[in-house]
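INFO worker-7 received task bundle
INFO bundle size: 2
INFO processing item 0
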Amino acid sequence: MSRRRETSWIHRWSRLLIAAIASIGAAGTAYLTIVKFLGGSAACPTSGCDLVLTSRYATVFGLPLTLFGCLAYLSMGILAVSPLGINPDQNKELRQKLESWTWLLLFIGSVSMAVFSGYLMYILTSEIKAACLYCIASALFTVSMLALTLFGRRWEDVGQLLFVGVISLVVVLTGTLAIYAPSDGGTASSIPGEAGNPITTSSGQAELALADHLTESGAKMYGAWWCPHCHDQKQLFGKEASKKIPYIECDSQGQNPQTELCRSIDEVRGYPTWEINGQFYSGSQALDTLANVSGYSGPRNFTN
């Protein structure tokens, strides 16, 4: 009579642990998605979180990257717990099939999320150069889920598992590089560095006058060429006036960057940030708001 192989603790609890990690990840990314949609600042002890949320990497296909992250975490959680709702005594065959398929999908999902998180960590350290606790936590979550997927069950065909893992890695990495391929925004410039997307709106006399006033009063707009909210702010001024506003480029790859100046100011936690009369205003501002806080007394028939 053969002795029944004892089930280790990690095999008993791996699915629930994956579900728990996925739940925490989903909650965090849902919170960041709401912050991104509302244009606010994330609760974070460092400015790196807001820098990441306003970076060009924070939006994919016009939607917050955190939204896709939230959906990925939710999918992992559902895959982890779905077989647990089936009673093995009543439907053992269905339970076994569902466990087999969901384990494979959990492996593909965890590999994909770990590879993507690894790429984002590389961008965080090499390009954005800021500490984002949410990003670091998410990377740890994805690696933990991958480890639990690998060691949370007995894989019979390790060769097939390795093959699936390599295919998943190549597909995710290729897709990621394609999505974030550098773009010049369709414009050419004699000034070295990235210029961002072109401004398509026109400026009226009020926009031009406000831009001149902001420059003369010593105001500053801190931003980055890839920042969508910075582009929205310039759209409000229009093509002509946006060239006159006191804009400071904070990204080292932009045109005429002043990266060290931006980093030296604690209040610059995201882009754009306006400095007007010693006060700082985060996010894209309505032109009337800029006029009020700067003491502008010119025409206000803004057209954008």
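INFO item 0 finished
INFO processing item 1
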Amino acid sequence: MRRAGVLLAAALLAWASAAPRPAAAQDIEAGRAKAQACAACHGADGNAVSADFPSLAGQTWRYLYVQLRDFKEGRRSNPLMSPMAAALSRDDMINIANFYAAQPLKPAAFAVDEAKARLGKAKADETLCTMCHLGGLLGQNEIPRLAGQNYSYLVAQLQAFKARTRTNDAGTMTSVAQTLSADDIDNLGHYLAGLR
């Protein structure tokens, strides 16, 4: 009986060592290689080279994947991103998303106006941003991280939701943005960009 237990343990050990490495580890390295084409705008480590582009570092992998898929399938449009995403396979998108999600977000060099940031926090509380984006506005699943994102990019996206030129959100952000004034958007940009 003892010999059968030893044989079973040996068989399980052999099976476990022959099993492939966890997919996440493979995805990150494959994503790093595939993301080299993204570095000109989003930085080699996902920290954008210009405030006009989003930093992808520390973003949820699922959100990044969905956005790439939406660019590829035409639910979201951008003259730079749409052609970039068109050539990506599903695995490419997942790998790129996993790579950027694993990178640390670095503080941006944006000078936050503290008075505007206080007004932005009040507006974020009023519109219940944390219901979807969670505490600290760190995001979850298909809901993006907003904390520490580039001010110019945040403002541009809120304006796009308000103008209904960006609509790949199932209507939630489009509805919320209708309640925001230009000052609200500016204030939210200061608040969100300043979060760490």
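INFO item 1 finished
INFO post-check item 1: Confidence is low (pLDDT under 50) at residues 4-23.
INFO post-check item 1: The chain has two domains: 21-101, 114-194.
INFO worker-7 idle
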